[in-house]
């Protein structure tokens, strides 16, 4: 699973995803919804998760980090994890996944 965020004036999570990370990141490099934030500096972090934990972690992170771009949120129980940022450094929170800027 991976998180793409921008480091502008108000750092924000752009998208969250999982799957074949290399292939997904290559696709995101051509996605205008992702590239919209390029001027702010785009960053990515990723980790490997056991397959039976991925959906729950994606759901948890989608609700906590509220990415700016549409993301697929699975219907399942959340699986909480340690965030890649300290709480006071969390990107600006929004009301769930949405489409575009």
Q: Summarize this, please?
A:
The protein contains 3 helices and 3 strands, in the order E-E-H-H-E-H. With 101 residues, the chain is of the alpha+beta class.
Layout of SSEs?
Elements: E1 2-6, E2 12-17, H1 21-28, H2 32-35, E3 42-46, H3 51-65
Antiparallel strand pairs: 1-2, 1-3
What report would you give on this structure?
There is one protein chain. By secondary structure, the protein is of the alpha+beta class. It has one domain (2-89). 27% of the residues lie in helices and 16% in strands. The chain contains 3 helices and 3 strands; from the N terminus they run ββααβα. It has helices spanning 21-28, 32-35, 51-65, and strands at 2-6, 12-17, 42-46. A 3-stranded antiparallel beta sheet has the order 2-1-3, with helices on one face. β1 (2-6) and β2 (12-17) form a beta hairpin. The longest helix has 15 residues, at 51-65. It is globular, with a radius of gyration of 13 Å. The two termini are 22 Å apart.
Strand order of the largest sheet: 2-1-3
- How many structural units, i.e. domains? 1
Q: How many strands?
A: 3
Q: Indicate the proportion of strand residues.
A: 15-25%
What is the N-to-C succession of helices and strands? EEHHEH
- Give helix % range: 25-40%
**What is the SS-derived class?**
alpha+beta
Average predicted confidence as pLDDT: 81
Largest sheet: 3 strands, antiparallel
């Amino acid at each position: 699973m991976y998180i793409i965020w921008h480091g502008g004036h108000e750092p924000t999570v752009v998208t969250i995803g999982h799957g074949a990370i290399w292939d997904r990141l290559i696709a995101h490099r051509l996605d205008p919804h992702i590239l919209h934030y390029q001027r702010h500096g785009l960053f990515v972090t990723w980790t490997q998760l056991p397959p039976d934990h991925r959906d729950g972690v994606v759901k948890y992170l989608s609700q906590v980090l509220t990415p700016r771009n549409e993301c697929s949120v699975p219907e399942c129980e959340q699986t909480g994890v340690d965030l890649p940022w300290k709480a006071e450094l969390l990107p600006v929170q929004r009301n769930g996944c949405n489409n575009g800027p």
